[in-house]
Design goal:
Elements lengths: L13 H30 L9 H10 L3 H27 L5 H35 L25
Helix pairs in contact: 1-3, 3-4
Length: 157
């Protein structure tokens, strides 16, 4: 379907188009890196299955966490690039679709903030606490714990 250039927003600019293009390229590269890291984790035995925090600490101490950290860093960078892409799409959307693209920017920003907080905590507080052996209060935030939300004391009432 040919695009009607009359309906494109007057706020669109060549800079927005370039930002959208390069953010899409960055997103693709980051997703490929993320996927490669997780394929490598599955193919590189042993695969960790959560039992408890001491077992995770022992596993992390004896096995390289390089692929996990690269994947986490890729997702930390994915969020801002995603928001840039959504803003570029919003800039180039026809007027009758701009409410939908603005909504996508809002949800994308929420995703970027939540994912950014999660992966920043994993790369900073969790990694540094494990390295220093400071394990108190760590179980609810360790990404490997599938029951981490139930580990918070508020759920013990």
């Amino acid at each position: 379907m040919p695009m009607n250039h009359q309906s494109i927003s007057p706020t669109s600019s060549p800079l927005s188009l370039r930002l959208g293009f390069w953010s899409a390229i960055i997103i693709a590269v980051l997703f490929i890196v993320f996927t490669i890291c997780f394929v490598a984790l599955v193919l590189k035995p042993p695969l960790f299955m959560w039992t408890n925090l001491p077992d995770y600490v022992a596993f992390a101490g004896h096995h390289s966490q390089l692929y996990q950290n690269i994947a986490r860093f890729a997702m930390l960078m994915f969020g801002p690039a995603f928001v840039v892409l959504l803003n570029s799409i919003h800039d180039h959307a026809p007027e009758d679709k701009r409410s939908l693209t603005r909504l996508s920017v809002c949800f994308g920003l929420g995703f970027a903030v939540l994912a950014g907080i999660h992966y920043f905590v994993q790369l900073s507080a969790v990694r540094l606490s494990l390295a220093k052996g400071q394990l108190q209060g760590l179980e609810p935030v360790v990404q490997a714990n599938p029951l981490r939300i139930r580990s918070f004391p508020i759920f013990y009432r």
